[in-house]
Amino acid sequence: MLDSLFDDVKRMNKRQFIYQVLSFGMIVSSALMIWKGLMVVTGSESPIVVVLSGSMEPAFHRGDLLFLTNYPEEPVRVGEIVVFKVEGRDIPIVHRVLKLHEKNNGTVKFLTKGDNNSVDDRGLYAQGQLWLTKKDVVGRARGFLPYVGMVTIYMNEYPKFKFAVLACLAIYVLVHRE
Amino acid sequence: MTETSEVVKINKWDGAAAKNAIDDAIREVFTGDLKCKESFALIDGRLFLCALAVGVALYALLWDYLYPFPQSRLVLIICVSSYFILMGILTLYTTLKEKGIFVVAKEKVGNNTRIWEASSYVKKHDDKYNLVVVMRDAGGRSREASINKSFANFIDVNGAVVQSVVVTEITKLYNSLSSDKKEK
Fold first, then answer.
1. Where are the extended beta strands (E) located within B21-179?
2. Reduced to 3 states, what is the DSSP secondary structure of residue A61?
3. Range of the domain at B61
4. What are the TM regions of this chain, as residue ranges (chain A) (predicted)?
């Protein structure tokens, strides 16, 4: 069975084999370039995120897919939903802006809170941090797709399953000719 | 990759696999039985375009890693746009220039070189293998002939390509194209 799986590969000549590897590379790089293109268009380092917690219910639920933009000329305002990073935490947080102070020179500092949380986010920030600034912001929510992100959540909860699926796809593409 | 021509066995119900196997057999006839020299310029061109595209993507990945996003913006714009332009060029190359040609063989006849190009296509859910062989001589004239036959003519019950049948068919095409030229 395994033998016949690799028959196609064994029969290839040097150029066909190189092409096979390159076309696999092009599938990966197309996805990568679409992602990087979205980064450039939206200005956000992570233009699509998945909501992981219920802290923003009823606005967003676990598994919602959020589309972000992060244009420097657009000011942050109270009531907007921002995605921000906190030092020492890998995963960005999606919460609403609660208080905001703006100086004449354009610098802002603001405080956030999850709609479904009873307290503001000071407890979540880094030790001693009281406010967020513009550099902490990953983007602002512009739209969402419900439930689609559940796939990503399941994949991350069962990493073995994720690697199995990815490995199967990779082998299929590499082994199957055209 | 080896020269020993063992019996190729494929799943004969898989149209793409059958086509590839017959293509390989025909290439072998041109380079082996007919003593032509295979020219790789066409496929090398495609490999170059693919490698360039993957290289551009890798470069963007590396640059974005070294200089995180807002800094790398300009490089990303250049890389992303050139990547998609390259994909467009690649599509044009395969549809307009390659057109399914799987072997280009050069043959020396006296002082002249003749070029043989073989291309093939199979329609979806069809058992007909369409082969077009084009011969170009040194004068720039070209002549073509084609075969339109079912896979069943080239592949036996077990899914093995019958090399002798392929040799006969190609030799027939080869002779008809060569002799036509002499009549003129």
1. 37-38, 101-109, 112-121, 128-136, 142-150
2. coil
3. 43-97
4. 17-35
Nearest to A44 by CA among A155, A158, A114, A137: A137
Q: What are the start-end ranges of the E strands in chain B?
A: 37-38, 101-109, 112-121, 128-136, 142-150
Flag residues of chain B having pLDDT under 50: 1-4, 183-184
Alpha-carbon distances, residue B14 vs A10, B10, B149 (angstroms) = 18, 8, 16
Please state, in angstroms and rounded to a whole number, the distance separating the CA atoms of residues B52 and A139: 33
Q: Using the beta-carbon criterion (under 8 Å), do A26 and B54 form an inter-chain contact?
A: yes
**Whether A26 and B53 lie within 8 Å, measured CB to CB:** yes
pLDDT in tens, B140-181: 788 888 889 888 888 888 888 888 888 888 888 888 888 755
CATH T-level topology, domain A48-147: Umud Fragment, subunit A (2.10.109)
Peptide bond into A92 cis (omega under 30): no
Instruction: Look at residue B9 and tell me if it is in a domain.
Output: no
Are the C-beta atoms of residues B114 and B106 closer than 8 Å to each other? yes
| A39–B76 CB contact, under 8 Å | yes
The residue with tokens 């679409």 is: A34
Residue-wise pLDDT for A106-143, tens only, equals 889 999 999 999 999 888 888 888 999 988 899 999 99
For residues B104 and B167, state if they share a domain.
yes
User: For B80, which of A17, A22, A33 is closest by C-beta distance?
Assistant: A33
Per-residue model confidence (pLDDT) at position A128:
86
Domain match, B178 and B93 both: no
For the segment A86-111, the average pLDDT, to the nearest whole number, is: 90
Q: Measured in Å, how far apart are chain B's first and last C-alpha atoms?
A: 41
Residues B64 and B48 reside in one and the same domain: yes
User: Distance between CA B181 and CA B177 in Å, rounded?
Assistant: 7
ipTM: 0.80
